[in-house]
Amino acid sequence: MTDAAELRVRTREFLAEHPPATTGRTDFLKARFDAGLAWVHYPVGLGGLGAARSLQAVVDTELEAAGAPDNDPRRIGIGLGMAAPTILAYGTEEQKQRFLRPLWVGEEVWCQLFSEPGAGSDLAALGTRAVRDGADGDWVVNGQKVWTSSAHLARWAILIARTDPDAPKHRGITYFLCDMSDPGVEVRPLRQITGEAEFNEVFLTDVRIPDDRRLGPVGEGWKVAQTTLMNERVSIGGMRLPREGGMIGPVVRTWRERPELRTHDLHQRLLTLWVQAEVSRLTGERLRQQLAAGQPGPEGSGMKLGFARLNQEISGLEVELRGDEGLLYDDWTMRRPELVDFTGRDAGYRYLRSKGNSIEGGTSEVLLNIVAERVLGLPAEPRNDKDVPWKDLAR
After folding, report:
1. Which of these, 11, 17, 168, 276, could form a disulfide with 62 (CB 3.0-4.6 Å)?
2. CA 289 to CA 286: how far, in whole Å?
3. How far apart are CA 160 and CA 175, in angstroms?
4. For residues 75 and 341, what is the distance between their CA atoms, to the nearest angstrom?
C-alpha cells in the first residue's frame, strides 16, 4: 500500500532526477507518467501506482511547489475526463498501452463522437452505422455527428455507432476508437452565439475502423458509453475550484472594485448566488471523495445540472451589475479556439457561452430524469420504445 508519506518521498526523488528547470516539458511529462505519478490510482505501468485516488493531491502539491509543468488539462479535458477512464475500464491491454500515455502527456488530443442531428438528448436513437466488412474484417462507418468539441484539433475520437438495427435502440450499439486523420472523416466548424466555432460537425463517409479499435463487446456500446457519460458529467460539474473560483469570481471582483454599481437588490442576489456557488464547490469536493472509494455514479448528473443553472444565473447577474458595460462584447471574430475560457473573457462572453452549459454533456432535461430516477428513486417515465427494434422506430 502506498501512503501519503511514501508518495511524497517518491515525488521528491522524481523531481531530483528530473529537475523542472532543466528538463523539457514533454520529456518531464513522459517521465512522470512512467514513474506512476500521472494519475496515482491507475495501475502500475499505466501512469499510476494502484494507490488511492485521494493521494493524487499529494503528488500535485509537491510538483506545483517545484514549478513543474502540467499537461494543460483544459486543452485535453475530453481525453483525460472521458476517453481515459473508458479505455481503462473496457480496453484491451494493447489499447491501454497504446493510448493512455500519449493521451495524458497531451501528444494526442481526443474528441467525442456521440451526439447526432437526430439523436441528441435521446442518444440511444443514434443512426450512424458501422457494418462489418467480412467476419473478421474492418468496420465501415457512415453517418454524421454534431456538437463535437475539439474535433478540429483531435487525432482520436471515442465513437458510438449502430451495429445491429434489428435490436432495440440501447442494445444494438458498439463503441469504437476512431482515427480522425483517416480518409472519410470530414470536420466542419459550427459557429456559435459567441462568434466562435469551438464546436464542429463531423461527417463519416466509408471510414474504415479495424476491429482492434473496438472498445468492449459488439452490441454493448451503450454500457461502455455510460462509463464515458458519467465521467463526463463529473468532469464538467465537479471541477476542483478554490473559494470564489469559476464564474462567481469575476462578479465578486467587480462588486468589490466598483462600489458605484451596487444596489440593494443586486447585493441580495449576489449573496444568494455566492452561497450557492460555495455549496456547489463543497458538494464537488464530497463527490470527489466518493470517487476515491469507487466509480462515478448518477450523483455527477446532479452536479452538472447545478453547474449549468448556477453559471447562467451568475452570468446574468454580472451583465446586470455592469449596466451598459454588460452589453459590450469584446470580439465577434470567427475563431476556432483550443479551449473554453470563461474567466479570461468579458461579461458578455460569459453570458452567451453559459447558455450552452444546459445542453453540452447532457441536457438539463435529461439530467433531471436521471436524478429523479437514479438518485431519488422516483418512478421512471413511461417509455414505449425500449423493446422496439431500432429500425422500426419513428424518425
Report:
1. 11
2. 5
3. 5
4. 10
**Which pLDDT tens digit goes with each residue over 305-342?**
888 999 999 999 999 999 999 888 888 888 898 888 88
C-alpha cell at 225: 458509453
Looking from the CA of 296 toward its CB, the CA atoms found within 13 Å total 28
Longest Cα–Cα distance in the chain: 73
Tell me how far apart the alpha carbons of residues 58 and 52 are, in angstroms, rounded to a whole number: 11
Q: Which of 67-76, 328-337, 343-352 has the highest mean pLDDT?
A: 67-76
User: For residue range 173-197, what is the model confidence (pLDDT) as tens digits?
Assistant: 999 999 999 999 999 999 999 999 9
- Of the pLDDT bands very low, low, confident and very high (cuts 50, 70, 90), residue 99 is very high
End-to-end distance of the chain based on CA atoms, in angstroms? 54
Annotated catalytic residues are 232
Average pLDDT over residues 30-58: 94
> What is d(CA 93, CA 87) in angstroms, rounded to the nearest whole number?
10
pTM: 0.89
C-alpha cell at 216: 468492449
Q: What does the H/E/C string look like for the chain?
A: CCCHHHHHHHHHHHHHHCCCCCCCHHHHHHHHHHCCCCCCCCCECCCECCCCHHHHHHHHHHHHHCCCCCCCCCCCHHHHHHHHHHHHHHCCHHHHHHHHHHHHHCCCCEEEECCECCECCCHHHCCCEEEECCCCCCEEEEEEECCCCCCCCCCEEEEEEECCCCCECCCCEEEEEEECCCCCEEEEEECCCCCCCCEEEEEEEEEEECHHHEECCCCEHHHHHHHHHHHHHHHHHCCCCCCCCCCHHHHHHHHHHCHHHCCHHHHHHHHHHHHHHHHHHHHHHHHHHHHHCCCCCCHHHHHHHHHHHHHHHHHHHHHHHHHHHHHCCCCCCCCCCCCCCCCCCCHHHHHHHHHHHHCCCCCHHHHHHHHHHHHCCCCCCCCCCCCCEHHHCCC
Return the percentage of the chain with pLDDT > 90, whole number: 68
Chain segment 114-138, per-residue pLDDT in tens: 999 988 778 999 999 999 997 778 9
Exposure on the CB side of residue 236, measured as CA atoms within 13 A: 32
